[in-house]
From TrEMBL:
It is an enzyme of class 1 (oxidoreductase). NADPH binds at N56. It comes from Bacillus smithii 7_3_47FAA. Keywords: Amino-acid biosynthesis, Cytoplasm, NADP, Oxidoreductase, Proline biosynthesis. NADP(+) binds at I6, G7, T8, G9, N10, M11. Residues 3-97 form the Pyrroline-5-carboxylate reductase catalytic N-terminal domain. This is Pyrroline-5-carboxylate reductase. Pathway: Amino-acid biosynthesis; L-proline biosynthesis; L-proline from L-glutamate 5-semialdehyde: step 1/1. Belongs to the pyrroline-5-carboxylate reductase family. Catalyzes the reduction of 1-pyrroline-5-carboxylate (PCA) to L-proline.
Length: 273
């Protein structure tokens, strides 16, 4: 299956690297293009045989499935410019949350899918949020799932929960990375432990915690209960978290959803909704 990836920014690059390193795709079956040629050429040096197309049109023409990894506001113009080469037998995958499969189908005759990846997919782990277009062919659903399962656990998501699910799956690693860094820095500031030691210990803790959850040894709640012995040190720490966190996460989701609403309004203007 010839696979095209338009846009080799952070997520486009992660998809290319993950698909090839998981052996889901071979470099010679992948066509890429980016406005900044240096990014594409760097990937080609990593993966000899990778096809660097001269333009977006070439990617679309030579690929069976095309991943659109550009910014949300660039999707409409990209599709409108190359509408004639998105043939019915092809499949288009948009990785941006504000654009619905219905909007893609309003412009395209081919099968349409929205798939929101995560940085965790670079480790061939984590979820990808999937929404199939109403007119997406069963054959393409199956082929897409076969491809995406090589790098992730696909989770089909309703449009109503796209933003919340994306906050957890796609933005979550950045949120929890930030909180972990603050946790480490507090340990350094308050106790004098070295930054390197604290970072190593925190990394091993997160990896171990992930394994406990992956193997279903504990749930999040039961893990907390197992560590938090009544009257112990962990309980004192949890009391501080309960006191200080307050409605921080509610505010976080409110803020991301407000920005999402702004993006949707702009996208709807482009698509004439």
């Amino acid at each position: 299956m010839k696979t095209g990836i338009i846009g080799t920014g952070n997520m486009g690059t992660i998809l290319i690297e993950s698909f090839i390193e998981s052996k889901a795709l071979v470099p010679s079956d992948v066509y890429i293009h980016n406005r900044t040629p240096e990014k594409s050429l760097k990937l080609k040096s990593q993966y000899p045989g990778l096809n660097v197309a001269a333009n977006n049109r070439e990617v679309i023409e030579k690929s069976d499935i095309i991943f659109l990894c550009v910014k949300p506001k660039e999707i409409y113009s990209l599709i409108a410019e190359h509408q004639s080469v998105f043939l019915k037998e092809k499949c288009v995958v948009s990785i941006t949350s504000p654009i619905t499969t219905a909007q893609l189908e309003s412009l395209l005759p081919c099968s349409c899918i929205r798939a929101i990846p995560s940085i965790t997919n670079r480790a061939l782990a984590g979820a990808v949020l999937v929404t199939f277009g109403e007119n997406c062919q069963e054959e393409w659903k199956n082929q897409f799932l076969h491809l995406i399962k090589a790098i992730s656990h696909p989770v089909e998501i309703d449009d109503r929960w796209t933003r919340a699910a994306s906050d957890i799956v796609s933005c979550g690693p950045a949120f929890f990375s930030y909180m972990t860094r603050k946790f480490i820095q507090a340990a350094v500031n308050e106790t004098g432990i070295s930054q390197k030691t604290a970072e190593n210990l925190a990394s091993e803790m997160l990896i171990g915690m992930g394994e406990l959850l992956k193997k279903k040894i504990y749930t999040l709640q039961s893990l907390e209960e197992k560590v938090c012995v009544k009257g112990g040190i962990t309980g004192e720490g949890i009391a501080i978290l309960e006191q200080e966190i307050g409605d921080m996460f509610e505010k976080l989701f409110a803020k991301t959803h407000a920005k999402f609403a702004e993006d949707i309004a702009e996208i709807n203007q482009q698509f004439g909704a």
